[in-house]
Recover the amino acids of this structure.
């Protein structure tokens, strides 16, 4: 029963070259992550405050998965976001504590989309090799209250403000900081060691991840380190931030699909073993219905995430509707599946010794990471109304 459910949700049966490549990447990633990052490793990460696992990142880089989407001329694999999403799903299956989401999805993605040739030549080979990791602060863009302001002084930019809920900031060597300007937005490349910048860990639900707050006090940025900036008649930074928001949301949705898949497998295995009244509890009709609902949740989420990943790979700045549908649906239903699994596991599911709580906490954080449900639902509504030629909500 478990194998059949897994086959139905992997997307490996069409036989196209693209799907064959994704199946091979999935198999490679599963073998690598299962070996490098067993559940005991996840618990160790949680006990140490959620810093990314260096050994896991090292193995991902050695297998070429860190630079999967980076162009071959910079040492990458020349793949697309659809292949990267497969690896993110696998990490979700193992609650992997990796910088892949922050570094490959956000930092490498931003440089590939908008970097100058000098910026790409400097950073992309290091990011592809896993020698350097980076992240981006997207909180304000996605409806957060924190703000960074950029002012122009003596031919350079000065950043002041605060950015919260930044994924893996303390582990990175390169930070992408969006800031408000009189003409719109600016995206700057900043190294954590620059004077005036401090990083403070933030407490959060999922101990296998680290979220940080970045404070900037008169941090200077030269034009050479500006990735994109809006002008009076241009919106380069705005387009880049929109693309990064879509990439991040789709990545979290992919993680949630992997989470839901593993939770379903754990639950089906458990209800087949646990017995009451001399029969497996999985034979009871009520339990069958709940397991079936979990499977339907997983399959619909996987389909939406697959469509979102393809849309991001095609044009990350013009796929708002597909991404927000996938993000909201996959993350909400992964949390719902984890809650159902907790009920079906009974008392053992509430213990620290069982792995289920790791998946529940990851699913709960994913609902609010890179856009709260209300933010994405509002964007879905606006997109649907725009398609019908109707005015959006005020």
């Amino acid at each position: 029963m478990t194998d059949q459910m897994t086959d139905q949700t992997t997307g490996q049966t069409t036989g196209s070259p693209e799907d064959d490549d994704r199946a091979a990447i999935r198999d490679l990633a599963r073998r690598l992550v299962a070996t490098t990052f067993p559940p005991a490793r996840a618990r160790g990460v949680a006990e140490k405050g959620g810093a990314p696992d260096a050994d896991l990142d090292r193995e991902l880089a050695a297998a070429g998965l860190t630079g999967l989407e980076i162009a071959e001329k910079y040492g990458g694999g020349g793949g697309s976001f659809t292949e990267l999403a497969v690896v993110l799903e696998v990490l979700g299956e193992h609650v992997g504590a990796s910088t892949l989401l922050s570094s490959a999805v956000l930092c490498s993605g931003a440089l590939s989309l908008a970097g100058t040739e000098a910026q790409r030549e400097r950073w992309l080979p290091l990011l592809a090799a896993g020698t350097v990791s980076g992240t981006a602060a997207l909180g304000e863009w996605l409806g957060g209250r924190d703000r960074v302001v950029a002012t122009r002084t003596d031919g350079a930019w000065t950043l002041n403000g605060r950015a919260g809920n930044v994924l893996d900031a303390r582990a990175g060597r390169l930070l992408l900081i969006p800031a408000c300007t009189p003409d719109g937005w600016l995206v700057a490349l900043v190294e954590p060691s620059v004077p005036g910048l401090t990083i403070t860990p933030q407490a959060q639900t999922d101990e296998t991840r680290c979220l940080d707050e970045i404070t900037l006090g008169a941090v200077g940025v030269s034009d050479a380190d500006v990735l994109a900036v809006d002008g009076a008649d241009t919106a380069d930074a705005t387009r880049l931030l929109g693309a990064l928001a879509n990439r991040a949301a789709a990545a979290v949705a992919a993680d949630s699909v992997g989470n839901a898949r593993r939770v379903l497998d754990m639950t089906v295995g458990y209800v087949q073993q646990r017995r009451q009244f001399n029969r497996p509890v999985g034979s009871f009709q009520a339990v069958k219905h709940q397991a079936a609902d979990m499977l339907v949740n997983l399959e619909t989420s996987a389909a939406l995430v697959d469509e979102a990943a393809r849309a991001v790979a095609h044009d990350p700045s013009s796929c708002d509707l597909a991404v927000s549908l996938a993000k909201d649906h996959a993350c909400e239903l992964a949390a719902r599946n984890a809650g159902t699994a907790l009920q079906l596991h009974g008392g053992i599911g509430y213990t620290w010794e069982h792995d289920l709580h790791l998946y529940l906490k990851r699913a709960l954080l994913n609902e609010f990471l890179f856009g709260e449900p209300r933010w994405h639902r509002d964007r879905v509504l606006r997109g649907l109304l725009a398609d019908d030629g109707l005015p959006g909500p005020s």
